[in-house]
Design a protein that fits this description.
Blueprint: E1 2-5, E2 16-19, E3 29-38, H1 41-48, E4 64-72, E5 84-87, E6 118-122, E7 126-128, H2 135-138, H3 141-154, E8 164-167, H4 172-183, E9 187-192, H5 195-203, E10 208-211, H6 218-225, E11 231-236, H7 243-249, E12 250-258, H8 271-275, E13 280-283, H9 289-301, E14 308-313, H10 317-326, E15 332-336
Parallel strand pairs: 8-9, 8-11, 9-10, 11-12, 12-13, 14-15
Antiparallel strand pairs: 1-2, 3-4, 3-6, 3-15, 4-5, 5-7
Helix pairs in contact: 3-4, 3-9, 6-7
The protein binds NADP nicotinamide-adenine-dinucleotide phosphate.
NADP nicotinamide-adenine-dinucleotide phosphate binds next to α1, α3, α4 and β9.
EC number: 1.1.1.-
Keywords: Oxidoreductase
Domain Enoyl reductase (ER): 10-335
């Protein structure tokens, strides 16, 4: 079977397609034919060496994949041959609050990931895909879907239907966040550097859109659009360039979910800006296998079709990375591994 490998820091050109011999399944393991892999900003960070991973050897990259069970090892009880499955970002985080043991490994980071024709994972690291989701759609869920789900529904401060969610930019996490929030009856505000992308966001049902280039003080626009109330949940993916504006956009008693740093990490947040409005900042680290199960179930019952901007073939993996790096995408970029 073929798989891509990369030594973190070797950049996109360092992606190599390699042939691997097949190995026997151990107790509890499952062999999966991978059909689709979705890319995340993190995969670019691993490639560029900007993601904290303790590995000296090349790894198979990418956390997010979906496929079909080819074989099950001794002792496997939850899955059988032919089942459609998606892999959980943290193979050891089943449920509940996180803990060091639960996040000790992450696919495509410090252990091999999903950009392969076949993978072997423990049954506990896999979740069945509802029939309504295609492999391509399911592949968008393990990182981006779970992160948005966790930020909006698990780690926010008592979100209620009709509350407002603010999404920054139109990348994978934000567009899935928009779709999940919309499906749950929440009011949505989304920002982008592109009017064309904002038009697409409106077509998806975004209630309000803001061009953050045209309106650099976009936090004031969020307050204006919400009649001074602010957003009850902010999905903060911007980092040092946006975090203080995100706090200013947040409603009293609301939550700022600290997710990413596309403009870089760093900067300072004055504690008074949280204290005075009883606002919460909460760090999000993707989420558990149960959250993956829940977000896919919710997507299925609400007929949510994750937005996939472009699908590349397995042989076009480097092009897919470069397209993601260009920032032209809206939503997710997917590699169809086995047609
Ligand atoms: N903590 C976690 O568990 C977790 C999980 C997933 C992702 N993340 C992080 O979240 C961030 C987004 O990940 P992703 O996979 O969704 O990335 P992505 O698909 O590459 O999306 C990035 C988007 O960010 C927007 N952007 C760029 N600069 C911006 C700025 N200054 N202000 C507002 N938006 C800006 C752009 O949107 P426009 O083109 O519309 O302007 C861009 O398309 C990354 O930092 C990633 O590492 C963290």
């Amino acid at each position: 079977m073929r798989a891509y490998q990369i030594l973190p820091g070797d950049n996109i050109d360092g992606l190599q397609c390699v042939n691997f011999p097949e190995r026997e399944l151990a107790l509890g393991e499952v062999r999966v034919r991978v059909h689709a892999v979705s890319l995340n900003y993190r995969d670019l960070m691993v490639a560029s060496g900007n993601y904290l991973v303790n590995v000296d050897n090349p790894i198979i990259p990418c956390s997010d994949g979906a496929g079909e069970v080819l074989a099950v090892g001794h002792g496997v009880t939850s899955l059988q041959v032919g089942d459609r499955v998606a892999a959980s970002f943290f193979p050891h985080w089943q449920d509940g609050r996180t803990a060091p043991a639960k996040i000790r490994h992450a696919l495509g980071g410090d252990i091999d990931g999903m950009l392969a024709e076949e993978v072997i994972l423990h049954e506990d690291a896999l979740v069945k895909i509802p029939s309504q989701l295609s492999y391509i759609e399911a592949s968008t869920m393990p990182c981006a879907g779970v992160t948005a789900w966790n930020a909006i529904f698990r780690s926010s401060n008592d979100i209620q239907p009709g509350d407002t969610v603010l999404l920054l930019g139109t990348g994978g996490v934000s567009v899935l966040g928009l779709q999940l929030a919309k499906a749950a009856g929440l009011r949505t505000i989304i920002t982008s550097s592109s009017d064309e992308k904002l038009q697409r966001a409106r077509e998806l049902g975004a209630h309000h859109t803001i061009n953050y280039r045209a309106i650099p003080e976009w936090q004031e626009e969020v307050l204006r659009l919400t009649h001074g109330h602010g957003a009850d949940v902010v999905l903060e993916v911007g980092g040092q360039g946006t975090v203080n504006r995100s706090v200013a956009s947040c409603a009293l008693g609301g939550s700022v979910a600290i997710i990413g740093g596309v403009s870089g990490f760093g900067g300072e947040v004055n504690p008074v800006s949280l204290l005075a409005g009883a606002k919460r900042m909460v760090g999000i680290f993707v989420g558990s296998r149960t959250m993956l199960d829940n977000v896919m179930r919710f997507a299925a019952v609400s007929n949510l079709e994750p937005v996939v901007d472009r699908v590349f073939t397995f042989d076009q993996a480097k092009e897919a990375y470069r397209y993601m790096e260009s920032g032209s995408h809206f939503g997710k970029v997917v590699i169809a591994v086995t047609p």
